[in-house]
Specification:
four-stranded antiparallel sheet, binds zinc ion, alpha/beta, 410 residues
Length: 410
Amino acid sequence: MLSWPDAYMPPALAGIKHPTLQLFDSYKGKKVDILGEQSSIYICGITPYDATHMGHAATYLTFDLVNRYLKASGKNVSFVENITDIDDPLLERATRDNQDWRELAESQIELFREDMTSLGVLPPNAYRGVIESMDEIISTVAEMIATGKSYQLEGDIYLDLNQVDGAIENLPIALEQALKIFEERGGDPARAGKRHALDPLLWKARKGDDPFWEAPFGQGRPGWHIECTAIALKNLPKASSTSITLQAGGSDLIFPHHYMTALQAKALTGVEFASCYSHSGMIGLDGEKMSKSKGNLVFVSKLRQEGVSPALIRIALFANRYSTDRMWSRELVDEANKLLTRLLSALSRQEVAPTFEVVQEIVNAISDDLNTPKVFDLLNTWSLKTEEGQVGGSPGEISRALDTYLGITL
Ligand code: ZN
């Protein structure tokens, strides 16, 4: 799948030290070190029927910070993102709107590319659609069948969680809640004949007029979670002791999607899928969660049309920690604008407060689980010191750091 154009990322300033990046791991419940010279990152992409709202933007901008930090610290980063270009919600939306599902997907993918380009998100090394990855997915399902850990139910194929060590014991939430969320997010816990209510679907047999693909185990299409397992395992270089370094996405993917993706990978390879599972918080509006069903989505394209710059979007989204659920508001944009105006005014001076130490502190803050509120505090303080007449710095060092680490091009 065509990605979007690369964005220039200036290298780190000479002499800046990059502490090991620490990210909060949603399953371990603590910060973990992102180690190794090779970082393999898998980010779950969009289902292309409603691109790109602020929830999406928050996720891809969060992991853009991770990508930038690792690259600036000299790591070799392989980054893969998928697009769920065949899925029930996409088909349902297309049917509802009397539109061809392929055309709907293509138009939304194009909009997503435009949004990512305008936001300055570094593109993935591989941007993989599910449809173009079908051979990889089918061979992954075949590998799973060969392990003997799957079973058939009226032509559909499920993973037997009872045969995967710790699958039920290590659920990140209570079983009762897991069953509820599993159903809400497309699962079928109540289906008669399943060995365990949470067993994830690997392959859905051809039904009615739905699109289908030929596979040795029957015509049909893949389950949601196995798509990401397959694309991640087949497109990323292996990390040191796990299959990949980081699995990332929005916190609504913690369960079941990322849990099942990782379990399936472990069932196939015998090793832990990722060394870190990191999730960005949900973005709400007017006190409510932003969601398609509530119809209160704020779109990046709309904000762009209204003249809200990518720099303002980034500052407003990261005024609070990436991992927290937070509200999007006009006030947030106004606050971001105040900071940016003050910063631009300081940067336009010939004499500015010392900068190298500030850049080092910015780097330290980002390495600490992307502490962006602290970064903006540091920038604000530096602007104030400059206004007060402190001297000795170089404005170029600040603007370069903004570009390198935050993707903010002034
Ligand atoms: Zn995924």
